[in-house]
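Task card 7
Instruction: Convert sequence to structure tokens.
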Amino acid sequence: MRVRPLAGVAGAVVFTAAWVAGSLRQTGHGVLSVQLSGLAADDARDPWIMITGFVVLGACTVLFGQELAAELHGGLGPRLIQLAGVLAIAVGLLRRDHVELTTGADSWHNQAHNIVSLVLYGDLVLAQLLLARRFGAVPAWRAWRPYLAASGIATGVALAVFVPNITSPSGGVLQRVAVSIPLLAVTAMAVQLARCPAARTSQAPLASSVSQQPRNGPIQVRVRHRRLLQCRCSRSAGTRRARRCSRWPRRSHGSSR
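Output:
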């Protein structure tokens, strides 16, 4: 089993544990009423718990996206997974001002947090849909295509329900559902990727590197060297035959004994 792809599992587990612990320790609010970003706000009780969850999730997601890109030989889907990791780190470091959503003037990092969060939501939906399309062209992952497509659609629907109700009492529950769907998809893909043999990921690049050998590459050099040796051997053989003919000249049929 490969270890590096399991970073996708570790990030999801640490992030989920962070918002569960932060929700339980946040006083004065219901366990699921505070949104995840509020648990990392300036006036939260233990903001470091949720900030750590965001940072660990982001770093692990970037590493998982790198492994997925190597498995699929590039593509936009794995790159969007890596971008989601970077955005998750930014969301955790660009903290909200207050636990609850309030009206009035906001700090620059609060406004940046809101913008980055919206980009992250869209990235999660698009990444899953593009990966589902890419999996259709990879035999080893073709069976995962309908599941990942359904996960992407479900994430989009959950976010479409959450965003208009962002200030409602149910906003915290809706956000947790919308975030947990792509995390489950990443966890399942990470486990499957960890089970795949590492040799299979290197077959296609090796074949492409051989087929894309430069004109003056090692194969062509060996062919030229072999031809040069053949020419030298033929020349030396001709020289030996010429020497034998000069030592023992052939007699003509009309010569006398």
